[in-house]
Structure prediction request, 425 residues.
Amino acid sequence: MNKPEPLRVAQDPSMPSTPRLIAKSTKLANVCYDIRGPVLDRARQMEEEGQRIMKLNIGNVAVFGLEPPDEIVQDMIRNLPDAAGYTDSKGLFAPRRAIVHYCQQKKIAGVTVDDVYLGNGASELIVMSMNALLNAGDEVLLPAPDYPLYTGAVALSGGTPVHYLCDEASDWMPDIADIRRKVTPNTKAIVLINPNNPTGALYPREVLEQIVQVAREHQLIVFSDEIYDKTLYDDAEHVSIASLADDVLFLTFNGLSKNYRSCGYRAGWMVVSGDKRHARDYIEGLNMLASMRLCANTPGQLAIQTALGGYQSIDDLVRPGGRLRRQRDLAYELLTAIPGVTCVKPKAALYLFPKLDPKMYPIQNDQQFILELLEAERVLLVQGTGFNWKTPDHFRIVFLPHEDDLREAFTRIARFLDQYRKRHA
Prediction:
């Protein structure tokens, strides 16, 4: 039996002969997120080839065996049958009320349930807050180094990221003089990441008061990321900048991802506080965007009240002898024993941000440097320029792995750096 001839469609002479290239939006030109960037793509390829990669590139606590408190998990399971519907666009009342109580503990005055927005992690709310604020040409002051989501969110919202320096010689404190130099008539806001990612710095009250004064003088909004506010070492105390004034507008971001080891639950919140009298239109924009995304995921919302009101197991992890405290101390000791490597010991969070002596390590392209480390030793880090640090002489390392794994990782890093020094001597 003869096969039927395939159907042939005549080429329309008016149609182009070559397909049109579909390009990404130009809004993404200044957006990058190298924590999950090209080097990670290579690491995935190596894993597919059967190689085991030690991933010290991301603070995904669950993959290192740091699990959420059991009462959070059980509370979510118990309430899951009632979690199928949409909630209020700002979130369920009970977790928002719990966040109001938490703000009272942090001495942030005047916060009501209506000032609290729940989100799919703090990340969603950070992007939303910038989208609601910025027009083309508006500037936002961001720390250098920063968590790159902020630079991307500002650029994607049509604004211009302007980076102020944090001073490594002063334990990575914000350089107040540099902040003042970079304020212009177009500056709308200043971002703080406190405790800081990637440096592990914790800002004292005196520094925060100086930043409040700059915001007051120039009528700037203060965005404060406090996602690590309980992950503190050496009896350090976290001060929320929003507790220091009522005549400045503050947006404070937090969530369950780090302190409660619940990254995948995507349970975050944003609190609007301080002087809201002249921000009604902006707040209306926040409400509009919150409504457009309908609501944050309900199961994640259900974990918040239990987490904030329950036993704070993070305290056990960060106190002397606790797992995170031991791993921070070990990582710092092993890292700073490598010739030509210096590091400010982190007071908070989950990261070290060491510096490589440029005379001993003449790096031109730090992404290529990190790629070479990956391919030589199967250890995945993130280069410093991925955090908008301009010179290729830093990298970020996560100290979440168990101590034996940290020793192995630093043995590999030290071996690679030794070979690098010899090649470039």
Observations:
- The mean pLDDT is 94.
- The radius of gyration is 24 Å.
